[in-house]
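INPUT
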Amino acid sequence: MIEALGYPFVQRAIVAGLLVGLVTSLLGVLVVLRRSAFFGDAVAHASLAGVAAGVVTGTSPLALAAVVAVSIGLSLHRFERSARLSLDTILGFVLPFFMAIGVLLLSLSPGFQPELLSYLFGSILTVSWEGLLAIAAVGTVVVVTMARHGRAMVFAAFDPDGAHAAGVNVSRVLTTFHVLLALAVIASISVVGIVLVNALLVIPAASAKLLAPSLRRMFVLAPLIGLSSVLAGLVVSYRLDLPSGPAIVVVAGLVLLIAWASVAGRRAGTR
Amino acid sequence: MADVPALTVSHLTVQFERQDSPAVEDVSFSLDEGQIAILIGPNGSGKSTVLKAILGLVPFTGQVSIFGAPAVEARRQIGYVPQRLGFDVTLPLTVRETVRMPLLGRRGREVETAFDHFTEALGISQLLDRPLGTLSGGQLKRALIARAMVTTPRLLLLDEPEAGVDIGGEQTLYDLLNSLVSHHRLTALVCSHELDIVSRYADLVLCLNRRLQCTGPPGDVLTPDALRRLYGAAAALYRHRAGGSPP
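OUTPUT
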């Protein structure tokens, strides 16, 4: 394993994985708080429309996927308010609608597109320097925005009316949160792929929710679990010659199961 | 100079989309500083809608001003206690974190003094490290009042604070509210269904059934005729004689 660290593509993979693990698990705490676990799945699958448009037109699939995802992030809260539909109902429309557009676009392109598999299931070992820079830029934007507006985001996600009454611009704060989520989802596609991206958003935050005694600790624990899962997943993937995206998700899932068992055991012990 | 009213509501009308008639129509009233005003009326009469309009949570026509300033510019003067908080009770969110939410990370001696004072005054200082989901109904309401008070507002809006609270807790809650109002130059506008509470704690009663039906002190307003007009035949307020049976 140590000798592998000398390869630039392995170094890029580790840094990309850690950045994505940090960003998604931080945002994941807000996802759990807002009870919008479906968001990551919906935006990731909807971004297939952008990927497909990129494949068909020969432009960067991830750049077009980012355009689709950020557009959804920007319009989601406004749509939620004006259409008088709940968030999960809107996401239930967004996912199949944009994914269907993606499938229709792909049907225009003849033959098998092997690169599609890397978007669906991730390909962390092929992350380029440009890709890594883009992930680092997303990571910086997310961390800086959360450091400045994280408390307002927590308040708006937990109790929108209470936050509004306290002077928080809930609409702007939730839209910012959705755009950050969209960016994080796109940044994660190269690591775990469209199909598994939601796991990085939800699983570390859910594990932290089980173990943490306060929201503050949850914000500390979730990134620790996210980062450990990415590192352990990469090691397992290297040692056993397995695809890295699914390995990371399985490790994160095992952490959740262990957290659940430990909490259940503690409860049984106190009865 | 005459004192500016704490809250002035003029010709307030709220019309929701896809509804034939307004939820609230042409409602006007004003509250003096230090008053506890209680909005009463049957379900669907528009009580919560009036509070939401004052908070700017629903679109309305008419004017709302707080200490002479348009409500939209005076939002920081308002504290709000919702009727219920739909949250995941398994969240590891502590009472301390919940009460501090409106502070948005602000620190400093004044802020900490207000935090300590209101958590003490509302009897939740021993509960600060407890998860919010483990509180009883009365404790949760007191935590939400503390959350509304930490920014030291001058106008407090409470939407049925007694909902989900037992009878003893109800009395404690209104005693605390009374004490907050008298000690902090606070003005409170409360929605309530509890006519007994209204008769004991309100300085001003506002009877609402889409339109304002009557306004005045409890002794003038809570008459059998007025209650029958407001709620229908079933409503009445019985005053027990000391040691006696209801009349």
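end of record. The interface with chain A takes residues 17, 52, 55-57, 75-76, 78-80, 82, 85, 87-88, 90-94, 96-97, 101-102, 104-105, 129, 131, 147-148, 151, 157 of chain B (CB under 8 Å).
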